[in-house]
Amino acid sequence: HTNENALFVIDAGTQNPYMASDYVTKKSGRRTVFDRGHGNLGYALSAAIGAQVASPQSKVFSMFGDGSFAMSVGELETASRLGLPVVFLLFQNNSYGWIKKLHQLYYDERYIGVDFSQINGAKIAEGFNIRSLRIDSNEKLEEGLKWAIDQQGPVFLDILIEPITDIVPPVTNWREDSKLDPSKREALTY
């Protein structure tokens, strides 16, 4: 329920293909910033601050995973100090999910250095004087998003999501790659 001036800054990782495949624009123009091709984790949090300064009439949404959050969490201080009305959305699955999915698909589920402990992103954001909510079920998501959109300053949603190893993001080469076991390729088709 965003307005047509909303701007979306999407980090590398799991949220990226979903936004690329499912986001419907409300007007023409550059309203999304994807870090898709470069895979720079930690990009969306700080880039959203720049987008908000460049487009003060827009509500900016910054979407990132917990691996990216760990790399750029300090930028919340900047958003808080400047009072920028960015909506920060942390998608937390306790791993470098994209890399973990690659380990699952191509390396027989031999996971190396991709898992970490769950954090409380909402409390971390509150430490930077940013209002926050922790969302731990699908039923709370819509209400949480509406709340965040209605806020004037920076806000933070800590959204707990399922592990990427349980799902298959819409990534074409994962569905078509000849190196994959045929049974895994079949599971990747829609």
Which keywords apply here?
Rossmann fold, 190 residues, 16% strand, six-stranded parallel beta sheet, disordered C terminus, alpha/beta
In summary, what is this structure?
By secondary structure, the chain is α/β, with parallel strands linked by helices. It has helices at residues 15-22, 43-54, 66-72, 75-82, 97-106, 121-127, 138-150, 172-176, 182-187, and strands at 7-10, 32-34, 60-65, 87-92, 131-135, 155-160.
Strands ordered across the widest β-sheet: 2-1-3-4-6-5
CATH-assigned fold name: Rossmann fold
Secondary-structure element pattern, one letter each? EHEHEHHEHHEHEHH
Helix content: 40-55%
Discrete helix count: 9
Overall spatial form: globular
Question: Any low-confidence stretches, pLDDT <50, length ≥5?
Answer: 185-190
Average pLDDT taken over every residue: 82
DSSP strand content: 15-25%
CATH architecture: 3-Layer(aba) Sandwich
Broad structural category: alpha/beta
Word description of this protein:
The chain has a single domain (7-96, 117-164), classed as Rossmann fold (3-Layer(aba) Sandwich), CATH 3.40.50. The chain has 9 helices and 6 strands; from the N terminus they run E-H-E-H-E-H-H-E-H-H-E-H-E-H-H. It has helices at residues 15-22, 43-54, 66-72, 75-82, 97-106, 121-127, 138-150, 172-176, 182-187, and strands spanning 7-10, 32-34, 60-65, 87-92, 131-135, 155-160. Helix 7 (138-150) links the parallel strand 5 and strand 6.
